[in-house]
Structures are given as structure tokens and as C-alpha cells.
Amino acid sequence: MENRVLSGMRPTGQLHLGHYHGVLKNWLVLQNEYDSYFFVADWHAFTTHYSDKIDLESNVTEMVVDWLAAGINPNTSTIFVQSKVPEHAELHLLLSMITPLPWLERVPSYKDQQEKLKTKDLGTYGFLGYPLLQSADILIYKAGLVPVGEDQVAHIELTREVARRFNYVYGREADFEEKAEIAITKMGKKQAKSYRTLRKAYQETGDDEALIRAQAMLKEQQNITLGDRERLLGYIEGVGRIILPEPESLLTKASKMPGLDGQKMSKSYGNTISLRDSADEIEVKIKRMPTDPARVKLTDAGDPEKCPVWQLHKVYSDEQTCDWVKDGCVHAKMGCIECKQPVIEGVQAELLPMQERIAKYQADPSYIKQIIHDGSQRARNVAKETMTEVREAMGIIY
Ligand code: TRP
Ligand code: SF4
User: Fold this and answer.
1) CDD domains under this entry (predicted)?
2) What is the pLDDT of residues 61-87, one digit of tens each?
3) Beta strands, E only, 150-285
4) pLDDT digits (tens, 9 = 90+) for 251-308
């Protein structure tokens, strides 16, 4: 469905400002515009951390708490946990039957991660299948849009290829055209006519606008069955039934959130400020940040462009403060500790209200359990519907 967004995060550690600025703020915007599904990819955590003693229970709970504290709305978004919807595993298994091994071996993250994480055992079947499990996560909700970072785009591309192959293999019917033609008439005269016009426009001139309009029209149809809708979707493009629609990635701009050392903020660089760091921890971390090495003494002039603190000013300070920093740094009018103060206060002010909400949620574990339970139930209902169609298409109907 074009208006459904789905994204997930692996519960492998605490959320930090990089997640907030890079991912969560984006989700906050999306949840107001789309039917949004956000989930904790707990099974995915095992693909790289199967022998690590991570406390999944607290990681999963904390992740959901942090999402809520950041403003994800459980009433409008569906928040759930992957392992609570076991249908993901069933779809993953079935998709594995039609996925050529080289498609998985060719996914760039497969070799990259193996090179990068030499200390980890990434020679497992599960790790190779990581992107295919991700495909199942997406396809089981027929999500149209998947907000992801650059590193995940290849996984969405794989998902599209797998969906196409699934539809090709299992969406073909001997009497497809006949059934599609009958389905057209079921829509009523007026709708049938505009469907035919749009289909013709798409097939004869490749008019994408017509394709989108025809798809939108089918979504509105009340008087045709799901199977017929899939037929008519496929019939526009001249393929078989489209049981699993291809998703698109919604590329999240690379997070501008710099870490404490000026590199991108990331757990693996050890340069993070956690969403749960106390005011004191924030102060200590920022006070310890390296600055322009040219500023040894107060009287040494500096260059903000060579200083990671300046990167944080760009995120947290207004124009006036930024001017004050530039002037003070270049003309050696102030010390680095003084310069860091507005950043310390900016980060603290950003995190304080979030941390108050975190404390409130943590005081009420049964509420969080309920959110996870309800969201997972909602997700599972959708997943079950898709699996019924998938099983039928594959002939698993006994
Ligand atoms: N692989 C994603 C990551 O590491 C997490 C993820 C799992 C995901 N399944 C997904 C993201 C489905 C989007 C859609 O960030
Ligand atoms: Fe960095 Fe500010 Fe010190 Fe200049 S004055 S080096 S910008 S911390």
C-alpha cells in the first residue's frame, strides 16, 4: 500500500542523539502523514550478536520507551516487536525457497560487515539471510515506503527483486486475463471505463501518472475481492497477480548529527550522547571534547572549522551564538570551556523533557507492555491476512 510506512530498529544498545536526529525525528513527521508501522527487530539482533549477552528484555522495552518519549504516538502508529509476529518467520522461510543464493551473497553489507567485524562470527546462515528476513518484515505489511539510511538501500532493492520474483512465480494463472476482465466489470460501468483508459495510457505511452491513478482507484474499490484487486493491479502492468507489492525506499538524509569527536555519532566510534545521559554526564562528555588543536593557550587563535564543538553549535545554537563563537574563537577572546557552555545547555534542554517522559513511562511498565501487546496484535492481524494470501498463492491450502 502506497500510504503505508514501515521501519525497524535493532535493539542492540541504547539510543543516542544520532538516532534521535537521524531517524526518530523523521519518523515523527512520517507518522502524521502515513499509516505507520515501527517495530523492534529483535530477531535481527541475533544475526550479528547471537553469542553476546545482551539483555534483550530491557533493550526492547527501553527502545519502545525511548520512541514514545521522543514522540512516537502509539494511537496513530503501530508499534510492535518482530518476534511477537511469528508470521515474519514463515514468510522469510517461504521467500528463501525462491531467493537465489547469489542475490544474498551480492548484498554489499554481507561482505562489508564480515570485513569490518572480524571478531564476530558472521559466517552463519542467519547472517546471510539477514536482508531476506528484512524483506519479509516489509512485504508482510505490503508497505509502500521504507524510511532507511543509505546503508540499507540495497536491502530494499533486494526486497523489490524478491517480491517481483514471488509475484512472477506464484501470481501467474492460466486464466489470468479472463479473470482480470471479469473483475473489471465487477467494478461498475464508470470505474471499469476509467480503469481501461488508465491501463491503456500506461501500456501504450508508459504514463506513470496513469499507473498511480489506477492503483489509487483500485485501493478505493469496495466491491471487488482482494484476489481481484491483485489481478487488476498486475493487469495494468501486464504481469500476473501482484500479491506482494514492491516497496520503495525513502532515503533518510545522512544524519548531520556529529559525535563528540567530530565523526558521525555512532556506538562503534564511542562518541555518543545517549538519550538517557544525565545532565552531569552530558556536561562531562562535552567538556572533555577535543577542540581545535591550535588553541593550546587562551591567547591562541582558533578555527571553528577544525573543531567538533563547532559542529554541535551548528545543531544547537542560534545565529547570534554562532557569531559569538566565531568571533571569540578566531580572535582568541574566550576559552573553549566558555564556548562549550551553550552546547551543554542546548543538549540538556533538548533531552530534559524527553527524560521526564522516559521516567514517567518507566514508572509504569504495564503500560509499556500493553502498548507492545496491542501494537503487535494489530500488526499480526495484517500479517496473518498476507500469509493467507501467500499460502493460497503457493497452494498451501490443506
Ligand atoms: N536492518 C535495519 C537496520 O539495521 C533494521 C530493520 C530490520 C529494518 N527490518 C527492517 C528496517 C525492515 C526497515 C525495514 O537498520
Ligand atoms: Fe572550538 Fe569554541 Fe574552542 Fe573555537 S573556542 S576551538 S570553536 S571550542
Assistant:
1) TrpRS_core (cd00806)
2) 999 999 999 999 999 999 999 999 999
3) 248-251
4) 887 667 899 999 989 888 999 999 999 999 999 999 999 999 999 988 999 999 999 9
What pLDDT, on the 0 to 100 scale, is given for residue 255? 67
Task: Give the separation between CA 282 and CA 293, rounded to whole angstroms.
Answer: 22
User: In whole angstroms, how far apart are CA 33 and each of 2, 24, 143, 347?
Assistant: 12, 15, 14, 28
Cell of 297: 593557550
Ligand 2 centre and the CA of 254: distance in Å? 25
CB 30 within 8 A of CB 113: no
Left if phi > 0, otherwise alpha if psi is -120 to 50, otherwise beta: which for 10? beta
Q: Which ligand is nearest to the CA of 151?
A: 1
Nearest CA to ligand 1 atom 15: 9
Strands 145-148 and 248-251: parallel
pTM: 0.90
Atom in ligand 2 nearest the alpha carbon of residue 335: 5
For residue 330, being part of any structural domain is answered with yes
Q: How many domains does the chain have?
A: 3
| Ligand 2: centre distance to CA 328 (Å) | 8
Cell representation of residue 207: 504514463
Q: Which residue has the cell 513527521?
A: 29
CATH number at residue 307: 1.10.240.10
Greater pLDDT, 174 or 301: 301
Q: Quote the domain boundaries for residue 333.
A: 277-362
Pocket test for ligand 2, best of 312, 339, 340 (most atoms within 8 A of CB): 339
Domain end, chosen from 187, 208, 237, is at 237
